[in-house]
Amino acid sequence: MKEIELNKFGYIRVGAAVAALSIGNPEYNAEEIKKLCIKAAAEKVQVLVFPELSLTGYTCSDLFHQRILREMAENSLKKLMEETALLNIVIAVGMPIEADNQLFNCAILFQQGRILGVVPKTYLPSYNEFYETRWYRSSQSRISNNIVLCGQTVPFHENLLLKDKNSKLCIGTEICEDLWMPIPPSSQHCLYGANLILNLSASNEIVGKMDYRKQLVTQQSARCISGYVYASAGQSESTTDLVFSGHSMLAENGVIVSETRFETDKIIYRDIDIEKLMNDRLKQNTFMGKVEKQDYITVTFELKHEITTLKHYNNAYPFVPGSKEQREIRCKEIFAIQSTGLYQRLKKTGSRKTVIGISGGLDSTLALLVTVEAYQKLGKSLEDIIGVTMPGFGTTGRTYHNSITLMKELGITSREVSIKAACIQHFKDIGHNLETHDVTYENVQARERTQILMDIANQEGGFVVGTGDLSELALGWCTYNGDHMSMYAVNCSIPKTLVKYLVSWYADSASNHNISRALMDILDTPVSPELLPPDENDNIRQVTEDLVGPYELHDFFLYHMIRCGYSPKKILMLAVMAFEDKYDEKVILNWMNIFYKRFFQQQFKRSCLPDGPKVGSICLSPRGDWRMPSDAAYDLWVSELQDMECL
C-alpha cells in the first residue's frame, strides 16, 4: 500500500515527554528538552507536552522570587525556540511569567520559533504539601490579554484555543490542579471547540494517587469527548519530602492509549483520531448543554501533513475485546443482557412456551443458550422451550446431529418437522421447477420454516424467538417474512464475529462434556443457511461467506461506518492495515463495494424488524439507533471507492 497522509483522515500524533532536569538551571533544562523535541520530531510527533514549570523545575519554591532565575528562564526559552525552529511541532513547556505586577505559573505554547500563546494556571493548590499561592496568582487576577515574551507580543489568557488551518485540530490547555476541580477549565475549552487538551502537571507520588490521576484523565477525556495529553514532573524533581514519578498519559475519549511512570528522558506518543471525536460530539447532541458566555482567544497555526504510519489501535475485530480476560467479562455481560431482555418479555407477556428453530448453526445455538438462561431466571421448566429442527434439502448430517444433541443435553422439548414435502407441494402450486436452485428455491424453504415455528407457537400459547444476528441484518442476509421475522430477536445486535466468541465462551464454561463437544463442532462448521443440496459427501455446499464475503470484513466495515462515521476511503485504508496478512487490497475493496450496496438496498428489511435487546454501541433497530430511508441511494459511498489515489 502506498504511503498515506494520515492527517487527511483526521489523525494527529501527540506526545508527552519528561526530561531529566537540574532544578533552578533553565539553561540545562532547555538543552534536555531540546533533545527530546528532536527525538519526537524523528517520530513525527506533532504536538508535544512537557511537565509544569519544566524550564525551571517545579520545586524551586522561594527561588521563583529570584529575578535571575526568571530572566534565565526567558533566555533559555528563546534559545530553545531558535534551536527547534525547524521542527514542525507544537511544543508546550512550563515556566514562571511576570505580568500585571504578579507572578503566574504558565504554559508556553510555541511552534517553529513563534510563541502561539501563554496560558496561566487558574487553580493554585495551597494545601498539604503544596504552597503555590506563596509565589503565584491565579489567572483570575490577570489584567492583560497580551504580554511581551522573548521579544514577541503574544496572547496571555487562560481561555486560549489553538486551531490548525489544515485539520479539525483545536488545542486547549490547563495546568495540573485545574483538572482536579469540580468543573475543570478543559470542560469549558471543549464546549468552545477544543478537541485536544494539554495538561502540564507536577503531581507527586503517594500510595493510591496514580489510580486517582488515571481516573481524572480518563473521565475528563470521556466527558469532553477529547484527546488528553498529561505530562507530569519527573524523578529529577524529587527532593526533601516529595517523590515525583513523571507519570504521563495519553487518553482518547475515556481510554488510556499510552502511559509511562518512573522513567526519565522518556517520550510516549500516539495518533489521536480527531475525526472520530468530532463525529461523536455531533451524534451526542447533549454534549453542548448549557454554554456559559466566556471570552476566548483563538490563534491559528499550521501543521504540515507528515505522519504516514498509523500509531493508533486498529483492531481487526472491533466488536471483540483483545484479551481473553476482557472477552470473558464481556461475554458474561452480553449473555446477561440478552437473557434479561428475553426474561422480561416472557414475564410480561405471560407466554407459556417458547419456540425456537434449531439448525445446528451458530446463531440458533446462541439463541437457544440465551433462552435456556432466561428460563432459569424465571424458574420455569426447560421443557417449556420447544426446539424445532426442520430438515430441508440442504441439511447435512453434521448440523442435524449437533442440533439434536444440544436439545437433548440441555433438556428442552425437541420436535422434528421436515419441510421437504411441504416445499415440493408449494413448488407445484406456484409452478416452480424443483431442479431450479434459485432464490425462489431458497426462500420457499426459509418461509416454510418460519411458518412452522409461528404455527407451533400458536398451538402452544407461546412465541417465536428469532435467531438472526447484526451482521446478517446489515447485509440483509435473511429472507423477508421468513427468518427475518419473529416475536423477539435475541441476537439482533450481536455481530457474527462476536457470536463465535459467545458460543466459544459458553463451551469452555459448560460442565456437560457432550454440550461442549457439540458447541465446538458448531464453531468449526462453515456458516450456511443450508438451503442448497450438500455435495456427494454430505458436506455443506452453500457457504455464506463465499457468497456475500467474510463476516470479519463486513463487521469491520459496519463498525467503522456506523460507530465512527468514517468515509469509505478511511475504512478501506484501516481495513487494508488491519488485514494486511490475510486479504489483498483488491479483495477488501470488492467486498466493501458489496457491503455498501447490500447495506443500502436491504434497509427495507431493517425498517420492520422485530423487537430485540440492544447490546452494544451499534444497533440497527428502526425504533432506536438507526433511522434511514429504505430508498436512499448508495452511489455517493460506492463512487468514493473508485478513486484509489489515496492508497
UniProtKB/TrEMBL annotation:
Organism: Lachnotalea glycerini
A GO BP annotation: NAD+ biosynthetic process
Family that this chain belongs to: In the C-terminal section; belongs to the NAD synthetase family. Belongs to the NAD synthetase family.
Pathway(s) the chain acts in: Cofactor biosynthesis; NAD(+) biosynthesis; NAD(+) from deamido-NAD(+) (L-Gln route): step 1/1
Record-given protein name: Glutamine-dependent NAD(+) synthetase
Reported function: Catalyzes the ATP-dependent amidation of deamido-NAD to form NAD. Uses L-glutamine as a nitrogen source.
SUPFAM superfamilies assigned to the protein according to its UniProt record, in alphabetical order: Adenine nucleotide alpha hydrolases-like, Carbon-nitrogen hydrolase
InterPro entries hit by this protein: C-N_Hydrolase (IPR003010), C-N_Hydrolase_sf (IPR036526), Gln-dep_NAD_synthase (IPR014445), NAD+_synth_C (IPR041856), NAD/GMP_synthase (IPR022310), NAD_synthase (IPR003694), Rossmann-like_a/b/a_fold (IPR014729)
Gene: nadE
